[in-house]
């Protein structure tokens, strides 16, 4: 389900966010870097909500049934802010099939918006809500920590372990003891009375509650055995899964019509629909009672499913990720070991639709990758053991990094070098922006320079035999070419023997010949270069009428 407390939230790097979920490729690099939490949802995975490091909320996508919460029904390919949630911190997020959306904040507030044809927003009406609205009816004094959405019904868990439900109730999924729709939140009682619930989950038309002692309760539709009660009869109020008696369940998730439960000993159990092999039992037979899966594997530490898919995933103690069920249209009937590093990747790459099964966290807390740590220490006087002087300005670096990253410096440092921290190397051949960019590249593998400065860096890369840097410079120049600088860039490409870049710049000059020949750069070039260009352009037919 697309909800899970932050303590077990997903982890992902910013580059993989856009790589795994194409919707995020619409964001700029700066916008992507600001994302702290995100969820892709919707019937076609065409909507997304994300939260920035400064707790700003934004949405992007198709906006079916006003599910983006922007106050209107317009779709958007550019992020739009949700001002109603600004400054809030998300504790739990979930979505239905309409879709309708539920969000609980860390302060215990409960918001809902989107589709409301069955009162799944809990506001007592069936009118769609185009903006996040507080859910307050029958909830005075209640604080919420977790939410879960079925197709058209909703569950919310309070901080003191009570479960409230509302919305579509044709199969008893609200747990009220009847099949009448529930227009506003109602506490789920019955066998949950006096129990402290610690987790909730929803299938399409079924509900689950996990109690603090590890007991599991279910209610709602049971045509495929997804309640795990040993039969296929619907239940209008919570029933305990006695088949799991003696086991302590610590996590439960629900797919479209199947369920997965993980015990505190790392054992995985599955039950319900199995038409796509989503139970992982090796066949496609439904199971009305929990059966253990992956018993021969190592300890399982996480299970994953989503009410809009028939896909299952699990992660083991050593970090191995398995998938089964509907995977890109194929039925995988046994857990299949993948190359993925998280269960989130399974849903991004093989599920249909490619939604997120939970709110994904991109927080790195206090941890930095090696590349991030190196990048932070570049040009840092506190840790540097060497400095370059360029145009009267210092650049602080580390000999070890330079020796590891660049053959030029490895050769330079072959002889025993003084360890004096004040040691300075004078650089006269290159400008300060160019040389600093080169050293920064050695720490980060990135280059940020305008095309004109990239020419100088291309010269340096050629001199130092840094082929990757040379290619990056050529890319920058190609992307920044204009009529005004085209001939200057062509001259540089010839001078530094960059054949691909030379061809690119030459073609650009020929395609814009009249305007290029009117620029100052064209007439300031040396005679030999000008003569060669005119002859070459003539051979290409550039001067024919």
The value of Rg in angstroms is 30 Å
Number of strands: 29
Number of helices: 14
Shape, please? elongated
Helix- and strand-based class?
alpha+beta
**Biggest sheet: strand arrangement:** 1-26-2-3-4-5
Proportion of strand residues: 25-35%
Mean of residue pLDDT values: 91
Main β-sheet, in a few words? 6 strands, mixed
Distance between the termini: 67 Å
List the uncertain runs: 1-15
Which percent range fits the helix content?
10-25%
InterPro entries: BTB/POZ_dom, RCC1-like_dom, RCC1/BLIP-II, Reg_chr_condens, Signaling_Regulatory_Domain, SKP1/BTB/POZ_sf
RCC repeats: 108-160, 161-213, 214-265, 266-317
Organism: Gadus morhua (Atlantic cod)
Protein name: BTB domain-containing protein
General description of the model:
The chain is built from 14 helices and 29 strands. The model is unreliable at 1-15 (pLDDT under 50). It has 545 residues and is of the alpha+beta class. Helix 8 packs antiparallel against helix 9, helix 8 (451-463) packs parallel to helix 10 and helix 9 packs parallel to helix 11 (499-511). It has a six-stranded mixed beta sheet with strand order 1-26-2-3-4-5. A four-stranded antiparallel beta sheet has the order 6-7-8-9, with no helix packed on it. It is elongated, with a radius of gyration of 30 Å. Strand 22 and strand 23 form a beta hairpin.
